[in-house]
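Protein modeling request. Please complete all fields; requests missing the sequence field cannot be processed.
Requester role: graduate student
Desired output: 3D structure, token encoding
Chains: 1
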Amino acid sequence: MHLKLFVLSASSVVLWLAPLTALDKRLDIHKALQGVSLTAAIACAVTAGNIARELSEQGEIEVIKKRAITADVVDEISTSAYISQQQRQQEAELILTCPGVDVEESRKVLKAIYSNDLQDYTSLSEHPDYPIEPI
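Delivered output (135 residues):
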């Protein structure tokens, strides 16, 4: 596409300038060739403009696709973090509700585990548009 755009742009310039300098305006056939050449130059320029517009739109679509993929990945990470946090919370509740277990010692252990996990999750929030906050 880029090669086609370059060729069309160059040909439009050549078709526009060459007849003006090379052909004589007094001869009728030269006038007709100048008219045909200028018409072809305009057609080449319009086609090159259309190709440039199409390439620009394709670039915008690629940017949108990349953003969507990034958002999906961030969403997957945050969902995974939320689910694992819920599982740990359920495990902690089970430990605390079991009979015969020292509650104060279990709380200290869980507090240490949670403080380490929260520090790990804050390093995941590198993407400024989608912050991941621990629950």
